[in-house]
Amino acid sequence: MSRFSHILATATAVVALATPAGLCAQDIAITNATVATGDGSEPMEGATVVVRSGKVVAAGRGVTVPAGMQTVDGTGKWVTPGIFAAATTLGLWDVGAVSESNDLTAGNSPFSAALDIAPALNPSSQHVAVSRAGGVTRASIVSAPASSIFGGQGAIVDLGADPDMVVRPRAFQMVALGEYGARLAGGSRTSAHALLRNALREARDVGSGEMIPGGRAARGAPRQGDDLGPDNRMARNETDRGSDVLLTRFDAAALVPVLDGTQPLYVVVERAADIRAVLALRNEFPALDLVLAGVSEGWLVASEIAAAGVPVIADPLDDLPSSFEQLAATQSNVGRMVAAGVKVAIGRLGNGIEQPRNSPQYAGNLVALGKIPGASGLSWGQALATITSVPAEIAGYGGQFGVLATGAAGDIVIWDGDPLELSSAPTAVYIDGVLQPVSNHQTRLRERYRDLDESDLPKAYDW
């Protein structure tokens, strides 16, 4: 066998071992564990979770285990739904400083709103593997606006160790306002808002013959037979758009589902005044299905956000006045918004050194805040919900992901302790009832270098 053939055969074997093609959903019962269902309720000791055919059958105390079902003794363990990472970038980059491996932005693209991140996602990314090992089972993936205030169409994904990670492509549109959007729009918030309104009006022109009576549709539920892709919408409306348009037809068509409310619009915004301006967009475009992202000063206008029924994906790191639009940033932001009735998820982890697997740490911080005089935190159950059921609801999958409820996906994480404590870690991760591998480059390097036998060096290669 030639050296090349030997290398190829070895590589094929490694890939075969790393791909759990033969794995299938397991019927399993986890008993005698501390179970948190993720719906905001407090954890239950001595509880049982039953999963059959990839779905949760039951979770709680007094649950009967079906005869003959595989049973795992959860004594001393905690069981939760999988973490839902909201507005992250998993699968879009490998090495941030290497542009060839980084699909986070498209600064030189002629398109903006039409950008669809789904084809660029890499399920083999080590960031996906590391997050899965940390208990993350689902995520909403975004790309950062760069060539325009629009970042393009995000996707809902699962982190299973298989080639098909996309649960729903073109799930929402991303737009940046505030200081970030102002820079992209020419240096002023006035320009950013003018660009957004113009874009929505151009979308209205493109989609004028196909609007849905009644406005907003339910999140996560496309219309029957409707391809939300902009190419399909263009084909149905080829009227002359005139010579004064700013968007390409492809971009304008991509915003039609935003305009009619079938595709949520995620708006990156921080300052209280900017949040009010975003909420006011519905005066002109009443069908908009808005989601606020960032929202450092959200607590200042929490009652207005709650009254509008707009959910929030808050950045837990925005707790200091690092810019003029974050002068009122505080660690109590999430707690105060939740107390006012705002639906809040923790998200936007995944850029730079921060990772979605750290979200339990930030949820735990919210629990600790509740014990500090003058600070506003959350109960344990509320904090877990900010990284499980609430982001799933915002994504359109309430009752399906991020919760241990009858009929929900069998996304289960078994922890060696309280998941909101920094010292705890997952011991097993299931997605759709399938036990997932939790190895990655980090764990393999750790195992290689546990001993000090220098005769084994170098150990920097998989094969």
Automatic annotation (TrEMBL):
Biased composition annotated in UniProt, kind: Low complexity: 213-223
Cleavable signal peptide: 1-25
Entry keyword Lipid biosynthesis: no
Chain positions covered by the region annotation Disordered: 207-239
Segments forming domain Amidohydrolase-related: 310-425
SUPFAM superfamilies reported in the protein's UniProt record: Composite domain of metallo-dependent hydrolases, Metallo-dependent hydrolases
Gene Ontology molecular functions: hydrolase activity, acting on carbon-nitrogen (but not peptide) bonds
Gene3D superfamilies in UniProt: Metal-dependent hydrolases, Urease, subunit C, domain 1
InterPro entries: Amidohydro-rel, Metal-dep_hydrolase_composite, Metal_Hydrolase, Metallo-dep_Hydrolase
Keywords: Signal
Name this protein carries in UniProt: Amidohydrolase-related domain-containing protein
Organism name: Alteripontixanthobacter maritimus
